[in-house]
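Appendix B: complex inputs.
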Amino acid sequence: MTIPTPIPMLNLIEIHKFYDRLEVLKGVSMEVKKGELVTFVGPSGCGKTTLLRIIGGFTNLDSGEVILDGQRIDHLPPNLRDTRICFQNYALFPHMTVADNIGYGLKIKKWKKNKIQERVEELLKLVQLEGLGSRMIDKLSGGQQQRVALARALSLEPKVLLLDEPLSNLDANLRLTMRGEIRKLQERLKITTIFVTHDQFEAMSISDRIVVMKEGVIQQVGSPIEIYERPSNEFIASFVGFVNFLEGVVERVDIGLNKATASTPIGVVQFVPERNINVGEKVKLVIRPETIQISQSEPTGMNNIFQGEVEIGMYVGSLAKYTVMINGEKFIIDQPNPRETFFKPKEKVYLSIPENIHLLIKTEIHQ
Amino acid sequence: MAKAESYSVPQSNVWERLKTFINAELINILAAILFLLLAIFLLYPILAVLIKSIRDPQGLTFAYYLKFFTKGYYFQSLQNTLLLGFINTVICLVVGFCLAYLTTRGPLVLRKPLKIISMMPLIAPPYLFAISLIILFGRNGILTKAFALNWSIYGFTGVVVAQTLAFIPLAYLMIENTLMSLNPNLEESAYDLGASEGRIIRTITIPLLTPGILKAGLLVFVMTIAEFGNAAILGGRTPFLAPDTYTMIIGEADFEMGSVLSVILIIPCIIIFFLHNYLLTGKKFTTIGGKPVASEPRKMTPLVKIPFLVIGFTAVFAIFISFGVVLMASFTKILGVKNEIVFSHILNFDSNRAIYNSIQVSLIAALIGAIIGTLLAYVIVRGKFFGRTFIEMVSLSGFALPGTVIGIGYLLAFNTPPFKLTGGIMILALNCVFRFLAVGVEAGISKLHQINIEIEEASSDLGANFMTTFYKIILPIMFPAFIAGFIYTFMTAIVSLSAVVFLVSPGFELAAVKIFDAAVYGEIGLASATTMKLVAIVVLCMMILNYLTKKTGFDITQKKGV
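Resulting structure:
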């Protein structure tokens, strides 16, 4: 799936971490390529922040290795690692000015005063805070503080930038803006970045690759498209966006025609078998709401047409959301551009389910 | 809310209208009564001291003050006191910081034991350390004899050591508190940016703790200069203000000079009280919220760890040894001289009677103190009358005022009618009530801040008048605070010495005074045994508090450095 690269910038090998008896990381392994933005996402308690803190050196691992640019670093304290972190609460030093905050690490590295000044100016420009160097931290807005934290973390040109839920303290609009800016900055500087968030949509929109975690185990690593369209289990399928699950038993597989059918509570569903399956196997079909077409009259010349009844219809403007019952099964459907045809409850409608459905096999289904 | 009821006053008889009036104005009436009590039992005695110091039979005079500043002895006393306060504060802050750093950032195995021993002085009267120093370094002291030391513990150094040990927990607790509230990400960020541990402490931790450290310092300073027992027992020929007032009044019956010394002692205390309350409020560094992250243990660098451990262990060792020798002395004929185990000190009749008297006085004080404290807290938090902050200030000022001054004040104020109280048990109890009022008031205020005023509003919305709301809603909710106030007042009252030493009458001795006398006359065994009995009582109170805290869920053990 991933194209092999010469040396990964960051390599995590079999990382285990216990808090008392509780194992919060159960052997996590993965690679991050140079210049890549990778997001760790998952519900709270999944271990994503712990993993980030282990990379940064703030939390000790119990076993495993952290390799940065070919060198093992897990025994080093944070001040000797070439990684820099941006904490969720920014952790800006409140008793210092913006410039002193950004220049803190440079001063420790014994840079000359005028060099520090130059570099700080450059960084302020980078994060669009020119002229605010002499401000105190508490005189800045939340978004500005976020930029200062970013500039401070970038000051020493780290090999890996670690961002711990950097946007969670901003209001919704600012969050969108900053999301775009962080991505732009990251692409411009080509800096390897690890971004931790619990927000799936944030993860989807900013990342080169997403690492979905749950209970200390990596569930799937992939591009946003892979994660969304080919989730590797039920948890991921329902974690990212809404999904209709349809249980079924494989009835027929025709490899030559690249066709298969499964019998489900709503009838026989035809699909393109994207993987090896056997007749009689139990499967779960993953059907996204926006892939189902809804119409008043029966579409012709298509497979997988089912008749149902609208239970709830919600007009949201850009789309309409319906709950439609087919044979006692509930389906959620997103209808784009509902201006002309908005269906009301009790209306009879036809649903057309696409044939290229992602499906989950037994081991990927929750019992 | 109470006001709104007067809206619908029906035109009825006088009784009904009076009842409505009382209901509407109850909180103001209560405030007036409480203020009157504060005026009589706190402001008036202080005023009496002030007046005494500037009046002679001919009228206004500053002759006594002139005498103070011209006669070398008195001035020396002031100098010593301030120097003692300064040295003590610096040592306590340094030790307190090291201990607090170790118990919040240091090796996990050391955190708990260090914390427990650091706080041990809280359960003992401060003069325990004077006694322990006499046992170790006195003329017949164990170490004096073992190493044939030829220096005397009596004097400036002895007082500094005893006071330092006594006030370490105060500094420690306040600094630990601020250290724990410091967002750990700040230090981690500095670490991340390449700073070493020493540099983090220097550039991040200490600058951010400055307000807290300053507050702790002011408090230690006030406590030190006002503390009577250690300086009186160990001072020897070195003059200090607090014990000098005692000698002046009790020894020489020179009330005028005694008052002057008191006023001089009170000035720095009042200045600091204001600094503490008004200049430092709000001076806190605010940071963007986020999930609070627990400080994760990290390896301390030897460069920091070793000096911190040396300082911390020295202090903790000294505290531990002090308790140990006083405990041993309680069961030994004369520790270091005649090392036979005896129970005569523990069973001593006079000592037990003094303990009994102390319990009696402290129980009365605790009951009155808890009632007044709870009511005051309510009035301060919910009242909307003019002068509310003044009442708050006065009721909290008791602990900032040196005990000796309040003692003299009571002696002067309640010696003649209309308030003739001297010689009785009530004057001792009332003295404790108003000196330690701050504790009950603080507990009440913090409890009230936890409950929404809407609960009371809901009650009146459902038809209850103020009286009903007070009995059915406010009192039950405030009950934990009442209990906390009660136990704290009891605990503080039973060990307090500096004020009651002026007020005890012959034939009714209190434990603290008994210990003081015994220590001064060299009856160390008796002094130690009585002290240990007080320690046992305080420990018992703490256990009750702990139990109640667990049961009610309201943290009544949190207090502001009293």
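The mean pLDDT of chain A is 91.
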